[in-house]
Amino acid sequence: MRPSLSIRQRTAMGFALMILLVLVASGMGLLYTMSVERTVSAMRNGAEQIESIANLRLIRLAIAATTDNMLLTRQTSLIERRLNGEVEELNRQLDALQIQSWGENAKIIAQNRRVVDNLQVLGNNLNDVIDELTSVVQEGRWAQAQFLRHNDLASLERLFDENLDQLGANVQSDVDASVAKSLRAENLLRTYWAVTVLAALVVGSIAVFLTITSIIRPISVLVTAAQAIREGNLSQQAKVTSRDELGVLADAFNSMTVRLKQTIEDLRASEENYRGIFESAVEGIFQTSFEGRVLSANPSLARILGYDSPDELVANLTDVRQQLYVCSKDRDVFLSSILDQGAVLGREFRFYRKDRQKIWISLNARVVRDEAGAPLFFEGFITDVTERKRAEVALQQKTQELENFFTCSLDLLCIADTDGYFHRLNQEWQEVLGYRLEELEGRRFLDFVHPDDVEATQSALGALEAQQPVLNFTNRCRRKDGDYRWIEWRASPQGKRVYAAARDITERVQTEERLKELLREKDTLLAEVHHRVKNNLQVIISLLKLQAADVQDAKALAAFTDSQNRVKSMALVHERLYQSRELSRIDLADYIRELATSLLRAYATSPGAVELEVNTRDIRLGLDLAVSCGLLLNELITNSLKHAFPGGRRGRVGVELYSQNELLTLVVRDDGVGLPEQVDWQRTNSLGMQLIRTLATHDLRGTIELNRSGGTEFRITFPAEGR
Question: How far apart are CA 225 and CA 244, in angstroms?
Answer without folding.
Answer: 19
